[in-house]
Amino acid sequence: MADIVPIVDSEAWAALWNAEKAEGSGALLVFKRSPICPTSHFVEGIFNRYVAKLPAAKDLKIISVDVIGARSTSQRIAADTQIRHESPQALLIGPGQKILWNASHGDIDDESLTKALALAK
């Protein structure tokens, strides 16, 4: 089963982001969520159930960011990726810091996640 690692500070994000510069670095799946938004909570359930079905893989890291508790980290992700912040939001980042896919709100579901992860292979 794949693990979702919560990221709470900008330094942890910077390490992950910088690691994506290298070719062959694998993919990074980012889920940004708000702990007080009902839509975010609903989509987080979809995301968590989907990830729970994935096998652990060395070439895919999965992280979660609380956009309120780690606001500066969330803002840094938006700045680094140049993807406007939304919540809930999912981003798939590939080698070379290439944004392979991003979606928000109701566009994050099993089908979109499956299609996105296929882009990372």
| Helical content band | 25-40%
* Strand line-up in the sheet with most strands: 1-3-2-4-5
Count every beta strand, where a strand is a DSSP E run of 2 or more residues. 5
DSSP summary: helix tally: 4
Q: Could you describe the largest sheet, including whether it forms a barrel?
A: 5 strands, mixed
Radius of gyration computed on alpha carbons: 13 Å
Instruction: Give me the secondary-structure category.
Output: alpha/beta
Shape: globular
Oligomeric state of the chains in view:
single chain
> Span from first to last CA?
18 Å
Query: Could you spell the SSE succession in H and E letters?
Result: EHEHEHEEH
User: How big a fraction of the residues is strand?
Assistant: 15-25%
Average pLDDT taken over every residue: 95
Stretches where pLDDT is under 50 for at least 5 consecutive residues are none
